């Protein structure tokens, strides 16, 4: 097995390919990314034996922006006989995976794959039984063992392989299934909820998304993101010329501020979260985020960078590097993560957590 399959948003295959090529090279893994536009997946073929394994082990999945999932695979299994598709899949995996903890029979996230998905659902149960009998899967699900992926790209045509449970997306097809809360003022609410799921370990939610925290939402109207913060019982200052949904105002937890998000300065120094969904040039949003972080105006931030049509990987990388350099220069230790979420469109979502600052908070610089 010397290839890696990556799932991505449809239309972002080139970005996903540019990213894996770049980040693999940083690990001295060289290869070739095969891209079919609008397929919603990319195949990275490593030149050297053992390199695909090196990638799935050593390239942190959380460092990937455009990939929703990453797993190691071998040659494409073609023309699986309709009367027995199971035997070749089991044969390919035998000896490659021992007592895997889970099976995911998947397709690319495109409209065209919807029919194939119905087949995948039916195929999963008998395949799981056969893989268990062969020892490829353990008898019971185990979330600490490798995940077996069977990825159908056409009827009778699939890649089979595995991802490591310590370095993959825990979600089927790399997509967290979230239910739209019917009382939320906008569908964007799911972006922030997904960001919480992706960037914040669930066992830290009670501590980091806690009751009574103070939060600022820049570009908040009509309030989908504010809704998520209110749901976690935070006090929210929502900044936007446009009004906030009455249902949010009625909670008494929201202060609506009709101000320019780029000029707004907080008047308290215990803000845990600043979130920002303003539609602006990425560099302008990035500069604002750096200002907040450097001045210690918030502890954590989640914001969106709306992407231009071209060179989107380069654009995101440059902005993330700008944040990293600016924080380093100020002696601020921070974790920076970015991901094109399932609910994101032409944008990526960034999370920065400020740990400590060697030079203090510099709260006076307003
Ligand atoms: C994509 S919408 C935000 C949607 C919101 N996150 C939600 O979940 O409902 C972008 C918002 O940013 C606001 N906006 C754009 N530029 C702004 C600025 N300079 N200051 C404040 N708000 C701004 C717009 O008025 C608009 O309401």
UniProtKB/TrEMBL annotation:
Binding-site positions, S-adenosyl-L-methionine: 188, 221-224, 240, 260, 277
Active site (UniProt): 306
Enzyme's top EC category: transferase
Any one GO molecular function term: S-adenosylmethionine-dependent methyltransferase activity
Record-annotated Ribosomal RNA large subunit methyltransferase M THUMP-like domain positions: 84-163
InterPro entries membership: RlmM_FDX, RlmM_THUMP-like, RNA_MeTrfase_FtsJ_dom, rRNA_MeTrfase_M, SAM-dependent_MTases_sf
GO cellular component, one term: cytoplasm
GO biological process: methylation; rRNA processing
Domain RlmM ferredoxin-like: start-end pairs: 1-71
Keyword Transferase: yes
Record domain Ribosomal RNA methyltransferase FtsJ: where: 186-280
Catalytic activity field: cytidine(2498) in 23S rRNA + S-adenosyl-L-methionine = 2'-O-methylcytidine(2498) in 23S rRNA + S-adenosyl-L-homocysteine + H(+)
Assigned keywords, A-Z: Cytoplasm, Methyltransferase, rRNA processing, S-adenosyl-L-methionine, Transferase
Keyword S-adenosyl-L-methionine found: yes
Location, primary (coarse class): cytoplasm
UniProt EC number: 2.1.1.186
Cell location: Cytoplasm
Biological function: Catalyzes the 2'-O-methylation at nucleotide C2498 in 23S rRNA.
Subunit: Monomer.
Family: Belongs to the class I-like SAM-binding methyltransferase superfamily. RNA methyltransferase RlmE family. RlmM subfamily.
Protein name per Swiss-Prot or TrEMBL: Ribosomal RNA large subunit methyltransferase M
Native organism: Mangrovibacter phragmitis
Gene this chain is encoded by: rlmM
